[in-house]
Amino acid sequence: MPDAGVLATILLIVGLFLLALELMVPSFGMIGILSAIALLVSAWSAWQAWWGTSPGFFWTYAAFWLLGIPSVLGGALFLLQNTSLGDRLVLRGPRAASKSTSVQEQNRLEALIGRVGEAQSLLTPGGMVTVDHERYHAESPGMMVESGTPIKVVGVKGNRLVVKVHDPNQAVKAPASAKGSDSKADPLADTIAAVDLTDAVTDDDEDTSASLDFDIPED
Q: Where is this region: Disordered (predicted)?
């Protein structure tokens, strides 16, 4: 069996380690209970080892015991809040940006509406696009867009651009469609013109018949 002083030192280190681990690992309080047991047994072992024979060692141990607990708790909280280790252990929401920064970013994204760019990754529907030589998060609702496909910004959703596939020939097809619509109206116009022409021919025949002053003999 180890000496009481050695046991007190080992259990103090183990208890403080378990106390820090309790803040980082969800255990429903089990690690915290083990930490409390280790610290209490360590204090009892230190009292048995040094109280009557070496008071200086005992009070040094007591200082480490009393100062170690808040120091470990503070150090663990600092690691959780300010290091990448804490980002992996704790699920945090996005950090709130200032209102002015959000408004400026929103205005900058809205200024891109109507611009043409290119998909830098597969949009499924979210991904990355390039507009004016800058990369942006974007999404294409309703369909997947292959990387390298020309896109056009049609809106803004939060901090993302809403894009759709851009067809460079769309402007060329528009006049053609207009021509097609005109051609649909042409048959009606042609019908009206044909009726007018028929009426005109009929009127001319009546006038010609009325101008004859003799009867045409019948066979």
A: 199-219
